[in-house]
Each structure stands twice: as structure tokens, then as C-alpha cells.
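Whiteboard transcription, Tuesday session. T.W. wrote the C-alpha cells on the left side:
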């Protein structure tokens, strides 16, 4: 299976789908969420899907109401303008990586598989994990591990990589494991490697900037009353989503008028993030870190 959709019922219900509406699935993947949206759309409804990974194109649903766009969702507004699809009634973004991307060894996303250090969602781009590890200056590498992997010893990790690569370049996960094994505490190895991989993945795919751009454009392209539904998988993206939905900016600073009344471009629909129940987690362990947040444009 390409991908098992997470929080499917909760996310689709939150979109409040109108049969004749225009909806965006910003992260099409295997098309699991899109399929559910389509079931609720009538003949004149429309669905525009985005995925920067060309593998997702193989999952295109054969339906005249669907347009699948093989591009980064950071170009949301441009494509919606091009397809004459403005404004839209709802946007769903199920962030991160699909099971397909994790499970294919050559893609380099999984700590369970050895192989090339790639991690590109869009394989037309040049920057790979191996290039980051072999070419970035020490300071820049340290920042990647500190800011995106939340690794407090980012500097020591970067220094170790720079020393090791001067003797032999780092091409595979096995190479990296040898270089950094001293930092992985016994019993907590997976957690350490998950953070290293998260940091590299965010850097290579410029994930946080793309998310910020998409959220800002979502606000511009949604109709008043339109819903923004986002599922995130780690605290860095969830914080951006939460702040933006609550305040309209990424710092989470409430905008007040002269009288002290708080103004936000969105009304929060979920006061707290919705998380998967134990049943979903037991059938789909990848759902365990998911957090769903929903806001309505005012
Ligand atoms: C968690 S999966 C989505 C799975 C999908 N909801 C389903 O039910 O099959 C995330 C997908 O978003 C894509 N993606 C991640 N960042 C993206 C971006 N900036 N622009 C477009 N697609 C992106 C990935 O390639 C991946 O296929």
C-alpha cells in the first residue's frame, strides 16, 4: 500500500465539504484523503491535488473533477490562479513523508533501511542528504542539527562529521552510523537517528519555509468560512501551524486593536489538537505522532 491515510474521518469531516465546492489536497500522496473528499463532492465540485514527488502521480484518481499537480505546495496560489480555481472552500495538508517514501530503500528516508543518503521528495532537485553532510560548512551543519533536529549537541555532531569526511566521504547510512555512533545513547539509538534524519530531511526539502509560504497563501485563497485542515507530525511544523491559525503570524503574537480586542484572520475550530485514538495507532503506528488542527477563515 502506498500510504494509509491518518485521521481520515476527523480530517475530512473538519473540511465541512460542500458538494459544489473547490477543495485542495496539498499533499496528495496515495490519494487516500482525496478519495474521501471526492465521495462528498457533487458533479460540479473540484479537487486540486499537489505533490512534489512524481511517484504520487501513479496514484491519480481517474475522475474529471480532479487535477493533480506535480509541484511544491509553496506555489499554491499560482497554480490555483492558473486553473481558475480561486477562491477555494477548503484546504487539507497532511504534512511530512508518505509510507511509500519511507519504505523504498533508495529514497533514504528510513532509519530502518541502509542505503544512499538521499531524502529528496522531489528527485529533480540536486541537494541530497549526502551533499549536505559532505559539503556544508561546520557552522551551517550544526545549525541544521540544532534547529531542525532539536539536538542540543549539534556542534559536536557537526565537528565529528567534518573531521570524518576529510578522510572518507559519507555516502550511505552505514557510513553515517559509523561516524556518529558515539552520540547515540544505548537504548535510545532510534530516537537519536530519528532526530538526525528529521533535521536532514527538513533541510533538504526546505520543509518549514514551504509550509510557511503555503499557510500564508492558504489565507489568501480561502473563501471566508473556508476551512484549513492540517495534520503535522513533529513539534516544529505543529508550532508554525498552531501560531498561524491562532494569530495569523508564525510567532504567535496576538494582534490587538486600539481597545485591546484580539484580531485573528482565523477562527480556531480545534481548541486542542486532535490526535489518533489507540485503535488507529495500533493499526497504523505511523499515525502516533499526528496532530490535527483546524481553522476557519473569518
Ligand atoms: C503524509 S503524505 C500524504 C498522504 C496522503 N494524505 C494520503 O492519504 O495518501 C505527505 C505527502 O506530501 C508530499 N509533500 C511533502 N511536502 C510537500 C510540498 N512542500 N509540496 C508538495 N507535496 C509535498 C510528500 O511527497 C508526500 O507524498
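and on the right, the sequence the group agreed on:
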Amino acid at each position: 500500500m502506498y500510504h494509509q491515510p491518518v485521521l481520515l474521518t476527523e480530517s475530512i469531516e473538519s473540511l465541512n465539504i460542500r458538494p459544489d465546492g473547490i477543495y485542495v489536497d496539498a499533499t496528495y500522496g496515495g490519494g487516500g484523503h482525496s478519495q474521501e473528499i471526492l465521495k462528498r463532492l457533487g458533479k460540479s465540485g473540484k479537487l486540486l491535488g499537489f505533490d512534489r514527488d512524481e511517484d504520487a502521480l501513479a496514484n491519480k484518481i481517474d475522475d474529471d473533477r480532479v487535477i493533480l499537480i506535480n509541484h511544491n505546495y509553496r506555489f499554491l496560489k499560482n497554480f490555483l490562479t492558473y486553473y481558475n480555481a480561486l477562491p477555494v472552500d477548503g484546504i487539507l495538508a497532511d504534512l511530512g513523508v508518505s509510507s511509500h517514501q519511507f519504505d523504498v530503500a533508495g529514497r533514504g528516508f528510513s532509519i530502518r533501511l541502509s542505503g544512499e543518503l538521499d531524502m529528496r521528495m522531489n528527485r529533480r532537485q540536486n541537494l541530497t542528504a549526502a551533499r549536505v553532510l559532505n559539503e556544508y560548512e561546520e557552522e551551517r551543519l550544526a545549525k541544521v542539527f540544532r534547529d531542525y533536529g532539536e539536538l542540543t549537541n549539534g556542534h559536536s555532531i557537526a565537528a565529528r562529521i567534518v573531521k570524518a569526511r576529510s578522510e572518507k566521504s559519507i555516502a550511505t547510512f552505514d557510513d553515517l552510523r559509523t561516524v556518529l555512533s558515539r552520540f547515540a545513547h544505548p537504548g535510545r539509538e532510534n530516537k537519536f537517528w530519528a532526530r538526525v534524519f528529521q533535521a536532514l530531511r527538513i533541510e533538504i526539502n526546505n520543509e518549514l519555509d514551504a509550509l510557511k509560504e503555503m499557510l500564508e497563501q492558504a489565507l489568501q485563497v480561502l473563501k471566508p468560512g473556508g476551512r484549513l485542515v492540517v495534520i503535522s507530525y513533529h513539534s516544529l511544523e505543529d508550532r508554525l501551524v498552531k501560531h498561524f491559525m491562532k494569530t495569523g503570524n508564525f510567532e504567535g503574537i496576538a494582534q490587538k486593536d486600539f481597545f485591546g480586542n484580539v484580531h485573528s484572520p482565523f477562527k480556531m475550530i480545534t481548541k486542542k489538537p486532535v490526535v489518533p485514538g489507540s485503535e488507529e495507532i495500533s493499526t497504523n503506528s505511523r499515525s502516533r505522532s499526528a496532530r490535527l488542527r483546524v481553522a476557519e477563515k473569518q
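Someone added at the bottom: The mean pLDDT is 97.
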